[in-house]
Task: structure prediction
Amino acid sequence: MNSTEESAVRKTGVQLILKDYQLVLALAFAIEQINKNPSLLHNLTLGFDIYDVQFRGWPLFLNPFIWLFGKYESPNYSCMRDRRSIAVLTGPSAIISDQIGTLLGIYRYPQLHPLLKSIQFQNPSGDQVIFDEKKKLESEYDIMNIWNFPEGLELAVKVGMFSPYAPHVNQPSLSENMVEWAIESTEIPHSVCSESCDPGIRKSPQEGMAACCFDCTPCPENEIANGTIKEYCVRCEDHQYANTQRNQCLLRVASFLAFGDPLGIALACIALCFSMLTVAVFGMFLKHQDTAIFKANTWALSYNLLISLIFCFLCSLLFLGGPNTVTCILQQITFGVVFTVAVSTVLTKTVTVVLSFKATSPGRRMSWLLASGAPNFIIPICTLIQATLCGLWLGTSPPFVDTDVHSEHGQVIILCNKGSLTAFYCVLGYLGFLALTSFTVAFLARNLPDTFNEAKFLTFSMLVFCSVWLTFLPFYHSAKGKVMVAEEVFSILASGAGLLGCIFAPKCDIILVMPNKNSLHGFRDEKH
Result:
């Protein structure tokens, strides 16, 4: 402090407090540094005015008036045109700050209190004041209940309060027994528009009603609504399914037409029984190959038909058990080729029967065809055509392993997908064409004087074969899952059994039951 400042102090008679003077210097230094840094306040310059505050009546407001208007003699009119203050740092005590704040509030000037440097303090009235992290005041308020009974009373009663300083579990604090409801009682009324929905049922809002009003709608199949989600249903994944209550997704169990299933056991036993029966017939023909009935029925074709029937019955086993890529391909290829051999053999036998009787008529052409063995080319040609169709099938869209999650509840069925239904129906249609051709030729030759009625048996066998597969088609389209596989296996076994029974059962009957007919002498007796 220099001599000039000391003389000024003596003239005014005011004692200068050194600590306050240091604070003024610190303020001046801070503002000077802010103004020197252009990155802090763009196009703005801070300044400050310092006024002495007296601790007695009228002089208390002298300096604030000068600060507000430039002169204390002319209130409500500002003489300061070139500068304007934006805030006030008030006096050293709460009393002075409160008195000056009353004046500043009239002209809406903010007052920065020194206590605001802390986020927690007590105001002059003794109330605890706490600011949050963003320097915002956390309010404390009372909860009032308007008592209007009797009508018109309109008495405001404090029934609780909210305090940011109370523990979180106690916010707000409410005296429920002090609350008077519209039913003229302090007992809490039970107000529910709609009862809560059970698990597995979703809430459907009622149009035009409050949010608490809703309908309970059951979830669709394979969708759930649990305790956490009730506004809408959630679909289970493909490898999962909804339980009966439709509140939980469960894992599906892998399923296929296995050998251990009752249906699988039954089909496998039938296939093996027919295979062994065919082998027995084959053995019987070998044993009686020198008899008349055997010689009259082109033994080479009979052997070929029996062997193909054995493979027809055994190929049905490929449809049982866990599917894989190899078995899926072998199922259809083996079925198509082996049955083509069997049906084309029947066609060859039928043509042979017709040519045998036509050759007895005048003319050499029929005799030459029969002697040259031309009918025997039917089998390889027909089989080659079927093999070509199967090759095109494998080259364009081969069968593959697929899953079915819709046919059986709670299970994922593993099965073979045909790949191309068009190719499958082409293979099946070609078989049907061969069978229909054989049936037509055999039907036309049914009245020929055949020794052992071979043409009639061939007609019945093709009739059974065509009936089985014509019945198979509509059922195959309507069935799903394991039932569809079982129907295909059953059709294979039934059509094979039809060929075996209609063609070879009468011959076995003659060999075993009526051996007297299985000789040239018996044939002559029957003829005469």
